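Assess this one:

_____
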Amino acid sequence: MDARVRELVKATVPVLKEHGVALTTHFYHRMFHHNPELKQIFNRTHSESGKQATALAMAVLAYAENIDDPSVLAPVVELVANKHASVGIRAEHYPIVGKHLLASIREVLGEAASDELVDAWAVAYGALADLFIAAENKLYTESANRDGGWSGWRSFRIADKVRESEEITSFYLKPADGGTLPEYRAGQYVSLRIFVPDWGYMQPRQYTVSDAPGGRQLRVSIKREPARGDVPAGRVSNRLHEEFGVGDVIDVAPPFGDFYLHEDRDTPVVLISGGVGITPMIAMLNRLVATAPQRQVHFLHACRNAGVFAFRDHLTAVAAAHPQVKLHVRHDEGAADAPARLGTLDLRELGEAVLASGTDYYLCGPADFMQSHIRTLHELGVGSERIHAEVFSTGGVAV
C-alpha cells in the first residue's frame, strides 16, 4: 500500500471509533440480505446479540490504527484464521465480504465516503484479505495432509453421551467412515454443525476437545445454554442435549485453535478455569499426566456450586494418582465437598508454589473472570509471554 492509501485509511480512525459498530451492523444486515447462504457459516446468536458486529468493528479499527505496521496484529490474525478455518470460510468468500463492506462504507458514511476514500479501503481490504486467505489455506492444507486429517466437514457418529454436571454433557464422537483421527494439541477445539429447524439452516458451533489427543474418538463437553433475561436459550446446545443421542450423526470440522498446551518446556503449569472453561483444562491435564509427569500442575477452578462442577470424580482420581497435581477448587454457594471449598479463587492466597518462576498460566472462562486473574498475575510480576488465555465467545481478552 502506498503512503496515500495508508493516510486515507488512518484518517478514518475517528469515524470508526464513533460509527464503527453502526457500520459493521449495517454490513452484516446487507450481506445476509444479498447472500443468505452465508447465514449457515456465521453464528446467528452472536450476530443477533451484536457481539459479531462489535468484534468486527474493533478489528477494523485496529487495522486502521496499525495500517503502517500490520505485523503487530499477527496474534489476532492467527486467532481469527483458526476460527475461520473451523467453520469453513474460504478464499471465495472474501470478495463477497469486501463488496458489502465497501458498499456499507458508502451507505453509512454518506458524503464523507469519497471515491478516493472507498478506493483506499478497497486496497487495504484486499491486502488484509490476502493475508487471511494465505493463513487459512495453510491451516486447511496442514489439516488435510495430517495422518487421519481432513478438510471441511466430516460425518461423526455419537458413540456415547455422558452427563458431567447439571449443565454439561460430554459427547464421544467417532468417524462414521471408520477412519482414524489426527493428532491435535490439548486445548484446541472442533466445530460441530447441525440443522436448526427454527431457523431453517445449518449452524456451526465451536467446542473444545475435552480430552487429550491420541485416542480413537473425540470428546466434546457442551454446556446447555439457558435463556437469560432477553437472551434466548442456545439453539444448538439445547438441541444437542435434548435431541441428539448415541448413534446420531453430526458434521465435524478438524481441530483448530491457537490456545493449546505448550509441550516444548518442562516448567510448572497453572490451569485456571471458570465454569465450562474447565474443558480445555481437562484436556491439558490429561496430556500432562500422560506425557510429562515431571511437570508440576496446579489446577484452579471456580464455579457456582457443586451441581455445576463437572469432572469432579475424574479430577479427584487424577490428583490421588499423581502427586505432582494439586487441586484448588472454589464454589460461590452451597455445600462444597472435597476437593472444593466455598469462597473466591484468589491467586494471592494459594501460596508461592502457584507463582513459581517460569510457570506457564492457562486461563479459560468468562471474560471478566479472566481479565481479573490476568490483572492479578501482572500485579504479581508475571509477564504476558507466560499467560495464555481463551474466551468462549466472539473476540478475546488482552494478556
The radius of gyration is 22 Å. The mean pLDDT is 94. The longest strand covers residues 154-163.
